Input
Amino acid sequence: MKDLTRGSIVSHILNMAPPIVVGMITIMICQLVDLYFVSGLGDAAVAGVAAAGNAGFLVNALMQMLGVGTVALIAHAVGRKDRDDANLVFNQAVVLSVLSGLLTLLGGFALARPYMRAIAADVATIDAGTTYFHWFMPALALQFVTQVMGAALRATGIVRPTMLVQVVAVAINIALAPVLISGWGTGHAFGVAGAGLASTIAVFIGVLILLAYFRRLERYVAFHPAQWRPQLRQWRRILNVGLPAGGEFVMIFIFMAAIYYVLRNLGPAAQAGFGIGTRVVGLIQMPALAVSLAAGPIVGQNFGAGNYQRVRETFVKAALIATVVMAALTILAQLEPGWLLGGFSNDPETMSVALLFLKMISLNMVAQGLIFTCSSMFQGLGNTKPVLWSSATRVITYSLPAIWLSTQPGFRIEYVWYLSNVATTLQAVQSLWLLRREFRKRLVPRQQTDAPKPATLEPVAPPVREPA
Output
């Protein structure tokens, strides 16, 4: 366990962020490698895998409910020096993760084809997306347990073990992708099914490694079977924090689904180009997201310990770091978009869509970095409802106008990206306002709230003289 209530905040952020960003980038690279080999199967396969991958946002919403609630409550317990509560929260979160994984597995198999029919442009895309979904769904189900274990470690200031496990799992996935997708060395190509199977095998091995780490090396939080009996009170504590954060990912899912819906009339190349561009933007945004994720446990531990000035200081420094990082990445995306997109498709129309998307969407990356930072602050404070409200505002300000514009004569794909930038900027402004209000309401010094009221001085009557 690492005490984040002391020492340099910038040092804590910079020590935690690199392992987080390495883990996230390796996962994103894994997705890009899958997309690279799938691109050889045609636009329908790329569009199908990208559209099916968007459903991962919906599953991530469930994971966020557990991960965010686990990080916040364990970090608060660490700040209070309450190890028993930290372990109880962790073990109850493990139980919830197993149940959520089973429900995800069943729901994914049942709903994969109806989902693809709703958003895909043609039958080939529907078939490709459904096949990928079926083979990738076990990987998503297994990630619930991984999410809880990683969240518990991050809440205690430990991030490197999770990163190392992710790197190993991604290396396995990358090694298996060409073998299973294209048939390298075996002559048996499984196509899009191979992409999903490679991910499932890699995640399964990663879960085993992380379980071994917890059993042999982790000391502050640990598996206690005696605490696995469901306790509804603890579930409510976790979900009260996690549900709004999960709702934020649902909003992202709706946002992305609206884009796919608007683009479907423009053909598979438009959807494929958007899928490639989205993956690349997600990759280059990882450093700023890692900074915000590193700031969350710092806020949580200091809020639990009552160090409110350090909470404010964490926001200021995390926001500055994220802004500098995002500004630099915006410049890179504007100057070298072709370099970032190189090799993902041989179709000129698909790459034209991806190039336009990257150049236009990269203009809102500074605003997105502020959104990441505000979201992490709310998570650390244990109140994620404002994050849900700001995300819902973004969906409303984007989806309705975009769908309406797509029905108008002369509709162009650029309109989709213009609206996205406006909606993201509005969300950033709203997030900053909501966070300022939250600070004023919750970061009240304890001596002001707990100090007894001063006694009221009563007038003193003059002494009464006794008669002589």
Q: What stands out?
A: Residues 448-468 have pLDDT under 50 and may be disordered.
